[in-house]
Amino acid sequence: MNTEKIVIAVTGTLCSGKGAVAKILQSKGCDIDTFSSVIRDELKSRGILEPDRITLQNEGNRLRKEFGGQVLAERLLLKHSNSIKPLVIDGLRNIGELDYLKENSDFVLIGIDASIESRWAFTQKRKTSKDFIDYDDFLKLEARDRGFNEPLNGQQVGMCLAQADYLIYNDEQFDKLEDSKLYKEVGEIYRKIMKNK
């Protein structure tokens, strides 16, 4: 039996359902955290309390450039080192994070994607503060998130998705998460992961 901490990271395109996947895994008894929580903590220490998506992306890039590609993953593993529960990390976006988690935990990567039309519709339905953008801005953020014109310490979702152990295509619009196809699919993936532990 593997004694390393079980870490399930979720990577995926902008607004494809990463948070929903993490929430489903949390309902199975996992701890849950996000890479952006580390970035938000860093920004909060400098007085930036409500960062937009671009500010979060820029700060994540800065932290990785200054401290190495592993910095966000390293801080999250340290934060949860006293818990024996599997840790779900929502929002993996960089190969340095992926490599660090592979080397320092019992690691599984779940990728999620959806059509650009579905993801745009989801932002319009969700309407959090970071979603108040127009379609052109959404496409620019989407390209950057995937890794277009990004440095090695930047956003690399496309490269991360290519290394996913499980890949989910989520084009379903649903009102209740527990009744969705996504809920069943993630539950089945979790059973497969834990069966081998």
Walk me through what this model shows:
This protein is an alpha/beta fold and 197 residues long. It has a single domain, classed as P-loop containing nucleotide triphosphate hydrolases (Rossmann fold, 3-Layer(aba) Sandwich). Helices cover 49% and strands 14% of the residues. The protein contains nine helices and five strands. It has helices spanning 18-27, 35-44, 53-67, 71-79, 95-104, 116-126, 135-146, 157-161, 181-195; strands spanning 6-12, 31-34, 87-90, 106-113, 166-169. Strands 2-3-1-4-5 form a five-stranded parallel sheet. Helix 1 packs across helix 9 and helix 4 (71-79) crosses helix 5 (95-104). It is globular. The N and C termini lie close together (6 Å). The model has no long low-confidence stretch (mean pLDDT 90).
